[in-house]
Amino acid sequence: EILMTQSPATLSVSPGERVTLSCRASQNVNSELAWYQQKPGQAPRLLIYGASSRATGIPARFSGRGSGTDYTLTISSLQSDDIGVYYCQQYNGWPPVFAFGPGTKVN
Amino acid sequence: QVQSVESGGGLVRPGKSLILSCAASGFIFGDHYMGWMRQSPGKGLEWVSYISGSGKDMFYADSLEGRFAIFRNNAKNSLFLQIESLRVEDTAVYYCVRAHAVNGYYAGFGDWGQGTLVTVSS
What is the pLDDT along chain A (107 residues), one digit of tens a residue? Predict the structure, then answer.
């Protein structure tokens, strides 16, 4: 079983700041990693897949990178609309087992 | 546009069963893997189940102990989740999700419904 951890748990930031969120897998997930944003009261939205590819319609200020067990999501200039919880999810392997991290809350 | 609308949630007694439904539109339903996620109040996301486009292959989170069954009706663009022997800890918002595919490979869950709340309580 692959376990996912995220840090920090909570992040307080100001508009315009650069924000970097971290995600770590308990074993190599071969860049088969996605990031989601969940705003209060809404369903999650896919931001990044394949560790670094932006999903359709996602602004360029969101970027992902990483490999092996360590991944990051960067928001280059935080906007007020970016407040929410960010989850990473691994999807390495077959049969599929999808594991989410506990999330990082961006205040 | 792509849309998934869940229904079937509500207040249920422990030990009872429930079937959740998801009505999908805006895409060729049978061409896509679909799944269910859940989120307990104030908690994180948990994968529940996943089904191939044809409905022949189903996958479940190990933690569910065989109480969940996913199935679909492609003729009616509908996805279902049957939950047996409901427990208090099954209380959650259940989301219907569509797999995002790139060059035929899974690449995240690209579309989520608004969710349906299941509350298990006596």
Answer: 899 999 999 999 999 999 999 999 999 999 999 999 999 999 999 999 999 999 999 999 999 999 999 999 999 999 999 999 999 999 988 889 999 999 999 99
Which ranges of chain B would DSSP assign to H, the alpha helix? none
Q: B113–A43: do the CB atoms touch at under 8 Å?
A: yes
**Binary contact (B95, A99; C-beta < 8 A):** no
Chain A residues lying within 8 Å of B47, measured CB to CB? 97-100
Q: At B104, list the tokens.
A: 């035929």
Q: Does B42 touch chain A (CB under 8 A)?
A: no
Q: Which whole-number Å values give the CA distances from B27 to B4, B21, B52, B74, in the listed order?
A: 10, 17, 15, 12
